[in-house]
Design goal:
CATH topology: NADH Oxidase
Structural class: alpha+beta
CATH architecture: 3-Layer(aba) Sandwich
Strand content: 5-15%
Low-confidence stretches: none
Mean pLDDT: 96
Shape: globular
């Protein structure tokens, strides 16, 4: 979008069986199973462009992205390895670092709230979560599978410093993007009869 696009009328939604089917079959991929091919730099740019079209009360854009390739994630995993010793289950903490290095490309989504008297921090954090979901949908539209995870290093102070987060920022998610060799299996879904309250 350019400045010349501002104020232009956008098309209204139209029924799409293809989109409905895609949403009905949406499924996260196991992070360790994601392999090449991954998105090109141009495709990543498009995924980010689509992902950023997310609900955002106040137009604050309270999030930012870090695109991580194989080399940067390998260095992070190496730096995180000694920090795993401080976790309640060190062996498990080291093992999950494999999720960080498997996929061809990872987009780190950082919740970065903006000072505002109008928009609560919670709403800004929800916007960051919506970005994560939009990125997954955008990657799927380009033919890729994704895994949205956090893991312990998203909450460890030393790890967050290595990731370059500043005060008040949090990891909204690591969006791992790649290709699955085999389709994922369906998982249990909620019983909406106990989750929905219809009120006239």
């Amino acid at each position: 979008m350019t400045d010349t696009d501002l104020g232009l009328a956008l098309p209204l939604p139209v029924a799409s069986a293809e989109l409905e089917d895609r949403l009905a079959r949406r499924r996260s991929a196991p992070a360790q199973a994601l392999s090449r091919p991954g998105p090109s730099r141009e495709q990543v740019a498009r995924i980010l462009e689509l992902g950023a079209r997310t609900p955002d009360h106040g137009k604050l854009f309270p999030w930012r992205f870090v695109v991580l390739g194989a080399d940067s994630r390998a260095k992070l995993a190496e730096a995180f390895t000694p920090l795993a010793q401080n976790q309640p289950q060190p062996d498990k903490a080291r093992a999950v670092l494999g999720k960080l290095t498997a996929a061809p490309v990872t987009i780190l989504v950082i919740s970065s709230p903006v000072p505002s008297q109008k928009v609560p921090v919670w709403e800004q954090q929800l916007s960051a979560g919506a970005v994560c979901m939009n990125l997954e949908h955008a990657a799927a539209a380009l033919g890729f599978s994704t895994s949205w995870i956090t893991d312990w290093y998203s909450y460890d102070a030393d790890a967050l410093a290595l990731l370059g987060l500043t005060e008040g920022e949090q990891v909204a998610g690591f969006i791992h993007i790649g290709t699955l060799a085999e389709p994922p299996l369906e998982r249990p879904r909620p019983d909406l009869s106990v989750k929905v309250d219809y009120r006239d």
